[in-house]
Design a protein that fits this description.
Helices cover 57% and strands 6% of the residues. The protein is mostly helical and 188 residues long. It is elongated, with a radius of gyration of 18 Å. It has one domain (12-177): Cobalamin adenosyltransferase-like (Hypothetical Protein Ta1238, Chain: A), CATH 1.20.1200. Strand 1 (12-15) and strand 2 (18-21) form a beta hairpin. The longest helix is centred in the C-terminal third of the chain and has 26 residues, at 117-142. It contains five helices and four strands. The strands form two sheets. Strands 1-2 form a two-stranded antiparallel ribbon. The chain has a two-stranded antiparallel ribbon with strand order 3-4.
């Protein structure tokens, strides 16, 4: 079997139910999710040692879930019975966020991405995830989509932010606050 098919040489690609331009909003959405998945793989490779065993397990699960997100967006026609992304995945992310947030110190100002290499990599995941979410919002404005994909990506970016901070905490590093910021976060 050849990896190349030559079927995309004219700027078209296959989706579930047809062919579209390679710059179609649908392709932009799931393509950005694919890009995010690559960055998650990079973060996973940096999550070394016993202190990040739980993070490795979750990042691997997220990689599978991101493939599910892309598959759900690849449908030209809405077919809810075939969707793989459901509200339970969003709920799981919220549980993980709440769990890790207990390890993190209170936050009052914006923080600069960085610190431990894993934390820096997770901040890249966060920003690419936000872009993927924007692409999904754009797609959802012109066609029906699985709204749970949009919700999942929204929560996933929060997860990346929290777990990046946890990576710094577990590595003995302090987040660097954006010093020109006013206090913008409160704990109630």
């Amino acid at each position: 079997m050849n990896i190349y098919t030559r079927t995309g040489d004219e700027g078209q690609t296959s989706v579930i139910g047809g062919r579209v331009s390679k710059d179609d909003a649908r392709v932009e959405a799931y393509g950005t999710i694919d890009e995010l998945n690559s960055f998650v793989g990079q973060a996973l490779a940096m999550a070394e040692g016993e202190s990040f065993a739980d993070v490795r397990e979750q990042l691997l699960a997220i990689q599978h879930e991101l493939f599910d997100c892309g598959a759900d967006l690849a449908f030209v026609a809405l077919d809810e019975s075939k969707y793989k992304v459901h509200a339970e995945l969003v709920d799981q992310l919220e549980q993980w966020i709440d769990q890790y947030e207990t390890e993190n110190p209170p936050i009052e100002r914006f923080i600069l991405p960085g610190g431990h290499p894993l934390a820096a990599s997770l901040h890249v995941c966060r920003t690419v995830c936000r872009r993927a979410e924007r692409r999904v919002v754009t797609l959802g404005a012109i066609t029906n989509i699985n709204i749970n994909v949009r919700k999942y990506l929204n929560r996933l970016s929060d997860y990346f932010f929290v777990i990046a901070r946890t990576a710094n905490v577990r590595s003995g590093l302090t987040d660097i606050e954006y010093i020109r910021s006013q206090k913008v976060f409160r704990r109630d």
